[in-house]
Amino acid sequence: VPKHIADSTVRRLSLYLRFVEEALERGLRTISSDTLAELSGTTSAQVRKDLSFFGSFGKRGLGYPIPELAGRLREILGLGREWRVVIVGAGRIGSALAHYPGFALHGFTIVGVYDNDAAKIGRNWDGHPIRDIAQLARDATREKPDIAVLAIPADTAQATADLVVRAGLRAILNFAPTPLRVPDNVTVKTVNMALELEGLSYALAHNR
Amino acid sequence: VPKHIADSTVRRLSLYLRFVEEALERGLRTISSDTLAELSGTTSAQVRKDLSFFGSFGKRGLGYPIPELAGRLREILGLGREWRVVIVGAGRIGSALAHYPGFALHGFTIVGVYDNDAAKIGRNWDGHPIRDIAQLARDATREKPDIAVLAIPADTAQATADLVVRAGLRAILNFAPTPLRVPDNVTVKTVNMALELEGLSYALAHNR
Predict the structure, then answer these.
(1) CA-to-CA distance for A159 and A206, rounded, in angstroms?
(2) Residue A6 contacts B, CB cutoff 8 Å
(3) CB count, 10 Å around CB of A157?
(4) I need a labelling partner for A27 at 20 to 30 A (CA). Which of A3, A52, A144, B12 fits?
(5) Residues A32-44: tens digit of each pLDDT
(6) What is the pLDDT of residues B77-133, one digit of tens each?
(7) Alpha-carbon span A75 to A4, nearest angstrom
(8) CA–CA gap between residue A46 and residue B190 (Å, rounded)
(9) ipTM surpassing 0.90, yes or no?
(10) CB contact under 8 A, A22 and B154
(11) Residue A158, SS3 per DSSP
(12) DSSP string of chain B, one letter each residue
């Protein structure tokens, strides 16, 4: 496996895995690059190129063997391992995410829930006691979380990201509607619902 | 305003608006292209180019006048209008979105909540009765919704999108982890949490 794969390739591999798993559930044995391309909105040449990174699968003209392809994609994407997650911001967005079936499917386990609101700290949140965000660095030395989910407002997001990075975490899923600055060895993925809503609003206003 | 602005430009305009509104709240009068560029992770030349689409603002060297810029960006993005939204899938994701402050800020008003689960239909969901998805087309002729939020599993997403398009809606916010095929006059924005989770998992597994 090459050391650095572009984000856009990783995103396509995720899509391929989705369709390969669906095909597996339906009992299919093989899937062609043409079918994967059509489902994923790309070309079959792109599919073959993406999958050739990881060695050769199956025989020309027979399609990719589904169970092997699924296993290889899951391995590449780091699935099947346990990732330890802290939720920062004990509100509805964090809760929706924690109950999202994909969260457990990806091996994501919640090890702590944090907030900075004294009225919330100590209360119960889906079975987790809400902890003071000031405790994060201390807890992290013991619990070794991998990922922080930031489900907090934009104005505290950068300061909280700095705190998460100082606590030694190297991955952030950011729901705050603002870009975050982090060191190169930390990965941030932003789910910016405000941007998506404004994209829809723009399209409707301009009658596209 | 030009007829077709690239999605990437619309996304930057959304980011600029966020920072301009924060500057407005702090009582600032002007903001420079350098500052907007740094906050948004782009170049000042790009900022000037993006904003020049919409006529000239302020004087060279004095920065952009903040209230005018905020007003113009809001207008371009179609904010300040009411957009009528139906939520399809009466679960936690739709609920988190409906309570997200950005939802009301963008003028998004929920006019109906739908599900296909007979056990849910007729029950109360955050003040809305859950309706049968089979009713959508009939309701839409009367209520004229603009946007459908699809908070449903991948395997029913395309069939539901087809139904939404036949009912005359022209914008979809898709939370199902699958791409949707729609006609050219319909805009889809996908919030794919599974892709973001797999991107983080990949980065952690490969120790980037």
Answers:
(1) 37
(2) no
(3) 23
(4) A52
(5) 999 999 888 889 9
(6) 888 889 999 999 998 888 888 887 778 878 889 999 999 999 999 999 988 999 999
(7) 15
(8) 22
(9) no
(10) yes
(11) helix
(12) --S---HHHHHHHHHHHHHHHHHHHTT--EE-HHHHHHHHTS-HHHHHHHHHTT---S-TTT-EEHHHHHHHHHHHTTTTS-EEEEEES-SHHHHHHHHSHHHHHTTEEEEEEEES-TTTTTSEETTEEEEEGGGHHHHHHHH---EEEE-S-HHHHHHHHHHHHHTT--EEEE-SSS-----TTSEEEE--HHHHHHHHHHHHHTT-
Whether the CB of A54 is below 8 Å from some CB of chain B: the reply is no
> How far is C-alpha A37 from the chain's CA centre?
22
Task: Compare all CA atoms of chain A with the CA of B83 and give the residue at the minimum distance.
Answer: A201
Q: Which residues of A touch B194 (CB under 8 A)?
A: 14, 18, 102, 106
Question: Which chain A positions have a beta carbon within 8 Å of B183's beta carbon?
Answer: none
Asked if A204 lies within 8 A of B83 by C-beta distance, the reply is yes
Question: d(Cα B43, Cα B77) in Å, to the nearest integer?
Answer: 21
Write phi, then psi, for B108 (nearest 5 degrees). -85, 120
